[in-house]
Amino acid sequence: MKKQIIFAIVWLSTTLVSFAQVTQAPLPFKYNALEPYIDSVTMNIHFNNHHAAYVANLNKAIEKAPQLKGKSIEQILLNLSKLPVDVQTAVRNNGGGHYNHTFFWSILTSPDKSKMSPALEELITKTYGSVDKFKSTFESQALSRFGSGWVWLVKGDDGKLKMFTTANQDNSIMDVIKVPGKPVLALDVWEHAYYLKYQSKRAEYVKSFWKVVNWDMVEKLIGIEKK
Ligand code: MN3
Prior knowledge:
- The protein is mainly α.
- It has one domain (34-227): minor pseudopilin epsh fold (3-Layer(bab) Sandwich), CATH 3.55.40.20.
- The protein has nine helices and three strands.
- The chain is globular.
């Protein structure tokens, strides 16, 4: 009897895994961790409805494209242009949505933990003149993005930091986007990310974002060498 139960559990778990190739990792903080800057209701809806929907729809697209089975999300986005057009659009939107949101959660943290180290401050000052100039450039990019999209800070192949925006769920690791670079910071400027708390005031949301940036993660991603 025991053996049968164990067999059933093993069968069930492998079957479940094969149904969903891409899974949503748990949120790395509590829903209310970013209060008062990002409220827990918005976090809950953003994670459990929006992000979860991208994951579900990406898995549906993968079912139609056997060549994607077993591939990581990074591998999928790096080779997006090779997919047939009908699958490509679904993977671009939903694979991009999954990658971008997973990345976004990783660079957020509670306000008490959001602190820029002197080393990162030095690098940003060297690149943008000052931390304030860096932030105001980022903010104006966020406001200039018409409709839905993202603002990015990436580390280019030349090691330099670059800032730009993308539409919809596009990002710089997709081979269909001609701004290559490894993301180190990102901001979701889709209305669903801020509308409950900030309504149409995107500028206020963008300013609040600075209170919850996980600068330790940003520094790690840039790969600043410890002196
Ligand atoms: Mn979003």
